[in-house]
Write a sequence for this structure.
């Protein structure tokens, strides 16, 4: 409110704060910036026509570099000295993955600094019982999701204490586990965010987990992996980020959520998640583990386009290693 008196029409202010420095910069023409962000998201979220072609990938990378300079040019040098960046996005910034060009910092999203403080100040939770690995065999319109089933079956083969669910999951079941892995479809309701759903069985009312129901739970899990279509999207609200399925898990007490920003590819997601859990086993925290998995997927020619890997983000704390 204090700064509003100093802003011109359509200007926004970006604050970059570290322990030893604070910088601000103004973004002129907020409407033009919002349009660029939406167009960039469309580039990333569209499956490339040629899976191994470099044209679409290079175009997306060039657009991202230009946009990164537009957004962070005056403070990019400050961010390049940091290994981890906590981002509290607002408005259309919720739609895209954001990073400093030519830098490998690990990025974590939080709805706000206040919520990050709440997540980090909570007392230790009760210990749950292993991993809930749930998947839907098909989308609500009948499109098969064989990769989602393979994804949870891989977890069941690899780890002890995995409860594999392909049907019959109720929202109350989420309260019993240390880790929640949901490889399924999601329906986002932009007008009523708490009505957004994770859908395991479109024909069974009990197979639909509404965000509002999840938010009312007291969950023991330290990590929720939402390997589904558009679990991180939802209604864009000023100041507090995206309200929807991801925020529901944070509200229920899960400190770290891995979610997707756009409809993800079934096969490449399965591979990304296998690498992600490999990195967790090696002792890396969720944010670092996801970044490492994305780097490996990006290095493979068939999945180099950002569509295959850039849509997954870590929301919440993301700094605590997960016991597996």
């Amino acid at each position: 409110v204090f700064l509003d008196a100093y802003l011109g029409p359509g200007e926004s202010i970006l604050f970059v704060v570290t322990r030893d420095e604070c910088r601000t910069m103004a973004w002129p023409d907020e409407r033009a910036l919002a349009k660029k962000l939406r167009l960039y998201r469309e580039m990333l979220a569209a499956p490339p026509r040629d899976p191994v072609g470099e044209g679409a990938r290079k175009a997306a990378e060039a657009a991202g570099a230009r946009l990164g300079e537009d957004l962070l040019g005056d403070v990019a040098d400050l961010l390049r000295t940091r290994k981890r960046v906590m981002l509290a996005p607002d408005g259309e910034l919720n739609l895209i993955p954001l990073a400093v060009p030519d830098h490998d910092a690990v990025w974590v999203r939080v709805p706000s600094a206040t919520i990050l403080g709440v997540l980090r100040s909570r007392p230790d939770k009760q210990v749950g019982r292993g991993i809930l690995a749930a998947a839907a065999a098909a989308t609500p319109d009948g499109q098969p999701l064989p990769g989602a089933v393979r994804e949870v079956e891989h977890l069941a083969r690899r780890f002890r204490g995995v409860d594999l669910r392909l049907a019959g999951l109720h929202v109350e079941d989420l309260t019993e586990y240390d880790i929640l892995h949901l490889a399924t479809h999601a329906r986002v309701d932009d007008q009523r965010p708490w009505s957004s759903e994770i859908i395991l069985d479109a024909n069974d009312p009990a197979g639909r987990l509404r965000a509002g129901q999840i938010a009312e739970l007291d969950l023991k899990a330290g990590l929720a992996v939402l390997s589904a279509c558009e679990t991180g999207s939802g209604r864009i609200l000023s100041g507090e980020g995206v309200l929807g399925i991801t925020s529901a898990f944070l509200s229920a007490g899960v400190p770290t959520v891995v979610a997707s920003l756009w409809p993800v590819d079934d096969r490449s997601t399965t591979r990304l998640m296998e690498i992600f859990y490999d990195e967790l086993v090696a002792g890396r925290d969720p944010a670092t583990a996801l970044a490492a998995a994305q780097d490996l997927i990006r290095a493979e020619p068939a999945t180099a386009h950002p569509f295959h890997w850039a849509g997954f983000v870590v929301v919440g704390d993301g700094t605590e290693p997960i016991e597996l």
Remarks:
- Residues 55-72 form the longest helix (18 residues).
- The radius of gyration is 19 Å.
